[in-house]
Write a structure and sequence with these properties.
By secondary structure, the chain is an alpha+beta fold. It is built from 17 helices and 39 strands. The protein has an eight-stranded antiparallel beta sheet. The radius of gyration is 27 Å and the shape is globular.
Length: about 675
Amino acid sequence: MFKKILIANRGEIACRVIKTARKMGIKTVAVYSEADKEALHVDMADEAVCIGPAPSKESYLVADKIIAACKATGAEAVHPGYGFLSENEAFSKRLEEEGIVFIGPKHYSVAAMGDKIASKKLALKAKVNVIPGYNDAIETPEQAVEIAAKIGYPVMIKASAGGGGKGLRVAFDDQEAHEGFSSCRTEAKNAFGDDRVFIEKYVEEPRHIEIQVLGDAHGNCVYLHERECSIQRRHQKVIEEAPSPFLDAATRQAMGEQAVALAKAVNYQSAGTVEFVVGGKDKSFYFLEMNTRLQVEHPVTECITGLDLVELMIRVAAGEKLPFAQADIPLKGWAMECRINAEDPFRNFLPSTGRLVKFIPPVETPGAVRVDTGVYEGGEISMYYDSMIAKLIVHGADRKQAIARMRSALNAFVIRGVASNISFQAALMQNPRFVAGNFNTGLIAEEYPKGFNAADVPHDDPAMLITVAAAMHRQYLARNALISGQMPGHEYHPGDDFVVRLEDGDDYHVTALPAAGGWNVDFAGKRHEIRTTWQFGQPLYQGTFDGQPFCMQAERHGLNYRLFHWGKQIDLMVMGARAAYLQSLMPKKLPPDMSKFLLSPMPGLLTQVAVVAGQEVKAGEILAKIEAMKMENVLKAERDCVVDKLLANPGESLAVDQAIIAFR
């Protein structure tokens, strides 16, 4: 077994690998860019080596620097995690030539499966079901349109070296094929250094289901059941679960056997994933691609099998045999994973960067709740890397229990300082189609066709919110009374009657009375009971409401109370009756008119301004392009207009809502 390994990655996956290596008694070496010098994975590792500036292409993607770090520290092997160099054939081969073990598949397997065009041809030879399409690189937009028309719309335009939703577009007509090809090619070149693009038929109402495979150097190869990855937004996974609520045992076995056949065809030796698109009531399935690395969603497979995939990768790389056969692999319970990302779901999921003012994940419980993260409170979410803050994983006896545990865990996940998608995840956990298991990859687009907003987050118990706000305010007044009562001549006795005003303007007249272990709150002719040990300053307000346990996040700002529950953010005001009346008389301040400006929808790098002062612009024309967290965002004119002046130049780092262009 290796004595020391280097992790050629960052963030939560680097921390994840370090945990397993530590369990195995293996020393670890972290590498980091200048932007990551205070990152969690650097602190966790036994040694750390700086490999360059913040941009990935100058640090994490430079193989020479990784190899130099191995030689300087004496690391015998490299675990690449996912992303960066994890599926780079040249890197894998170079390590082998340098006498360093790559903890992953052999370079020839990476080459065969890492190229989507070559992998489809190989899958055909291995008698694996494949989607109809054009399996060679396409050179021009015109050729793309011609090929797409022959295949028949809709089609999927894909980067050959793509992954993670990058370098991928769906086209429903000639114009979309023409534009999609150009955007796909540019994005692929920027993300992967490879601009080859191909086209295949888009399977409508598809489910995205993948099979985890594991092979060793002794000819053994097994599949570790499936993962359901159909809950996606813009082709990026949002929620994953294992097993799939759609598959039956026969389909699971058929897909597993085809995945193993493909892996054996390339002499696969490590953990890998064969992805399938599954469509129709007959559960027909087609090979999509093979990821020759560990997947982001591997924890759900670990939950249902009880296996540590990172440990097995390390053991296989060290030459050991798999310690089990196909028949020995269990399938226990149900697991789910939510990707907690630094993005604002109420601003079209645009990236959010900055300092984590508060970061309090839910308490981890073996067999129930797990949190994989690479950040900490006070740390920075950088614009240079992907938006993932953490992976929240739950495991239950069945799917119903897994959903309930995920809802509770999302309630208890405190993130402040940057926006997160927790509210969106919580809404999905309550979506009737998701709860019923009746969904496909189009669920998010179909359920939220106009984007996501606060009204999309259901909360069916406003009485709980009113009661909590009233109890918090009454506790605040009681604390003040206690302080004042200690000063002779300044005794203060709080009242019990208040008005709770919801953000929609509705007022509720309440009475909040002290009770053993909490408060009794009366309003609308009914008494509600709160029993809690909550104290001011604690981010989680928990206890029992009318005898039932609950947990929500709560903040107080003067008379304003902000509650976070079931993914919904609710602002309430609690005050006396006279103050409530005076508040209602206050004039409303209107926001400034910014309709004649193009504003940056997110923090990021302005890469292009496509117009000049005085130019007449038609609706739909490109105005500017912004890059952040490895994604390109194209800003187009919403209506016909004339450019007055440019307020920012290419190369500038923009803040959210910063003006880029002024119009006449």
